TrEMBL record:
Keyword list, A-Z: 2Fe-2S, Iron, Iron-sulfur, Metal-binding
Descriptive protein name: 2Fe-2S iron-sulfur cluster-binding protein
Molecular-function GO terms, alphabetical: 2 iron, 2 sulfur cluster binding; electron transfer activity; metal ion binding
Cofactors demanded by this protein: [2Fe-2S] cluster
Family as reported in the entry's similarity comment: Belongs to the adrenodoxin/putidaredoxin family.
One of the GO BP terms on file: P450-containing electron transport chain
Highest taxon above the source species: Bacteria
Domain 2Fe-2S ferredoxin-type as annotated: residue spans: 2-106
Organism: Alloyangia sp. H15
Protein's UniProt keywords contain Iron: yes
């Protein structure tokens, strides 16, 4: 199992455990976590699963995928250098302990 900590905009932390191959988005949706909408279901057709990868993990999640940067332009909250679409971050054993921060709004 791979542990992911989601930190809501108000500072509330929620730890979820997923399997390698799950996306950060799919894990959150499957567990009913608020803060990730995922209107397109993970096909990178919206930016409602926007997250900020914690600074300590920024290098571990890899670069943005092709097209991800364009889609982030439609994000409802500020986009920073640590912004990612959570549907594009696949869990691996090396991401065990990953921390992502959720924006104030997704839509």
């Amino acid at each position: 199992m791979v542990k992911v900590t989601y930190v809501a905009h108000d500072g509330t932390s929620t730890e979820l455990h997923g399997d390698p191959g799950d996306s950060v988005m799919s894990l959150a949706i499957a567990q009913g976590l608020d803060g990730i909408v995922a209107e397109c279901g993970g096909s990178m057709m919206c930016a409602t699963c926007h997250c900020y990868v914690d600074e300590d993990w920024a290098g571990a999640t890899g670069p943005r995928m092709d097209g991800e940067e364009d889609m982030l332009e439609s994000a409802a909250s500020e986009v920073t250098g640590r912004s990612r679409l959570s549907c594009q971050i696949r869990l691996t054993d090396t991401l065990d302990g990953l921390v992502v921060h959720l924006p104030e709004e997704q839509v």
